[in-house]
Amino acid sequence: MLARSDRMEVQIMECDECGGALTTERSAVRRYTIGGLPHVELHGVEVRRCDSCGRETVGIPRIGQLHRLLAETFVKQHRMLAPVEIRFLRKHIGLSGVEFAQRMGVARETVSRWETGASPMGAVADRLLRLLVVTHQPTDNYVVDDWLKELNDMPAPDPLSSVAMQKREKGWTPRERLELAGA
Ligand SMILES: [Zn+2]
Question: Which of 62, 75, 112, 117 is deepest in the core (most CB within 10 A)?
Fold first, then answer.
């Protein structure tokens, strides 16, 4: 872009939308909407907010580790996976909609319906996706057979109950207490 390099310092402190001044909050709590997971609270993130138009930019460090932790958290839930979680997990294991449909033995349109919530995924496909995630990313944190036994096939609630992740020095960890109201 024109004349960007010589104004770099100024650019960083200005709003991309309106050029207003930015205020930085070092340790904020925000939903992970940009990651397609509005039920996930991120604690301890840095937020830059424009004083003029209110536009916010959320800085998310160690995104790879955060995504691994989220994948593990979703896979270990006892209820069925929610549409946003199906979509997240499918992308997490690096599959396109077409590739995922092929692995699951369904039509591409079926995958779309699972991910928009138009039709439920069903218990068998739900388990297969969890197994794809676990085998894609082996950890000794969970024993596959144990958590498969724990599944109760309760549908995901609507709206989804929230999940919170805390940013710490060494990376992201699960957090018990939620802070943001509503979904
Ligand atoms: Zn602005």
Answer: 75
Distance 50 CA to ligand 1 centre (A): 5
- Render pLDDT for 106-135 as a digit per residue (tens, 0 to 9): 999 999 999 999 999 999 999 999 999 998
CA of 12 to the centre of ligand 1 (A): 12
pTM of the full predicted structure?
Answer: 0.79
Confidence of residue 11 (pLDDT cuts 50, 70, 90): very low
Q: Scan for tokens 């932790």, then name that residue.
A: 69
| Confidence tier at 154 by pLDDT (50, 70, 90) | confident
Q: 22-175, what's its fold?
A: 434 Repressor (Amino-terminal Domain) (1.10.260)
User: Looking at the DSSP assignment, which residues form a beta bridge with residue 25?
Assistant: 47
